[in-house]
């Protein structure tokens, strides 16, 4: 049943994303604003933020466990469906990426930057000194964003249940939206811990869903990179699994200068295709686990 719930939630979330509807980030921000008013100081803000996430996660775990003990586990599935639809999702990307690709094709890199700068982390908005760097920043942000809004939630939901999925997604939200910015680095460090295993599983999946030969020669090395951050792992693995220099704009411009205007769209399409195929691999793996009785 976990497979059915996740599939329905994933398909529903994709349709909502296409319509740019129901952003979970707005709900997180509203909850954090209401909860942080009584916090004072960095330490107090950090622990208050963790409590805001941990308490509902514990209640959810106890509630699902109690229903399971009573033999009413089915009653929790509608709640899990709504929870997954809320936790997953990356609305707000479709229009900026389309405008970015169009501006890139015209050669208007300033307009391309204008369309996507608000989607980049604040720390990276001054780092795009060239079209190559701008595109790599966008690619890295897009992959990390999709990973944390879909794959991370899917991993913890399957491995440890809806409470773990809620907690993991909540830590990401604290890192991005907690009002007391001084506490966010601590949340970012905890997010990297929660991301560590699923990010490397996704990096492995890139080899299965992409160019396996290229991934075997280069991408597999990131699996042993214990200290590498999530975006570094995903970028390195994706670069090795994609053909046509999809994540190497400098090399592409040297080899195919006449096709440079179409590079922005081609690269983004390749990234999205790899992520979609990787999710299909995860869904197939989940189906096998269900058939084997593991899940």
From TrEMBL:
InterPro entries with a match to the protein in the record: AmpE (IPR031347), Beta-lactamase_Reg (IPR052966)
GO process annotations (BP): response to antibiotic
Keyword RNA-binding among UniProt keywords: no
Organism domain of life: Bacteria
Membrane-spanning parts: 47-67, 150-168, 274-294
GO CC terms, sorted: plasma membrane
UniProt keyword ATP-binding, yes or no: no
Keyword field: Membrane, Transmembrane, Transmembrane helix
Protein name: Regulatory signaling modulator protein AmpE
Protein source organism: Marinobacter orientalis
Lineage, highest ranks first: Bacteria, Pseudomonadati, Pseudomonadota, Gammaproteobacteria, Pseudomonadales
């Amino acid at each position: 049943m976990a497979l059915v719930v996740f599939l329905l939630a994933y398909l529903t979330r994709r349709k909502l994303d296409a319509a740019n509807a129901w952003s979970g980030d707005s709900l997180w921000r509203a909850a954090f604003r209401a909860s942080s008013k009584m916090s004072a100081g960095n330490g107090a803000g950090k622990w208050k933020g963790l409590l805001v996430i941990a308490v509902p996660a514990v209640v959810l775990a106890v509630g699902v466990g109690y229903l399971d003990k009573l033999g009413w586990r089915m009653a929790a599935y509608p709640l899990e469906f709504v929870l997954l639809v809320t936790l997953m999702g990356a609305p707000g990307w479709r229009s900026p990426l389309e405008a970015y690709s169009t501006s890139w094709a015209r050669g208007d890199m300033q307009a391309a930057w204008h369309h996507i700068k608000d989607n980049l982390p604040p720390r990276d908005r001054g780092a795009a000194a060239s079209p190559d760097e701008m595109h790599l920043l966008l690619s890295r942000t897009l992959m990390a964003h999709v990973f944390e809004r879909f794959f991370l939630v899917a991993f913890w939901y399957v491995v440890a249940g809806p409470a773990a999925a809620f907690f993991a997604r909540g830590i990401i939200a604290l890192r991005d939206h907690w009002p007391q910015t001084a506490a966010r680095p601590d949340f970012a460090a905890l997010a990297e811990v929660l991301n560590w295993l699923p990010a490397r599983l996704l990096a492995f999946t890139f080899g299965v869903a992409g160019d396996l030969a290229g991934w075997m020669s280069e991408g597999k090395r990131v699996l042993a990179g214990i200290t590498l951050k999530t975006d570094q792992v995903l970028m390195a693995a994706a670069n090795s699994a994609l053909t046509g220099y999809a994540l190497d704009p400098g090399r592409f411009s040297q080899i195919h200068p006449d096709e440079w205007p179409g590079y922005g769209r081609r690269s983004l399409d390749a990234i999205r295709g790899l992520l979609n195929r990787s999710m299909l691999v995860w869904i197939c793996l989940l189906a096998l686990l269900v058939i084997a009785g593991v899940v």
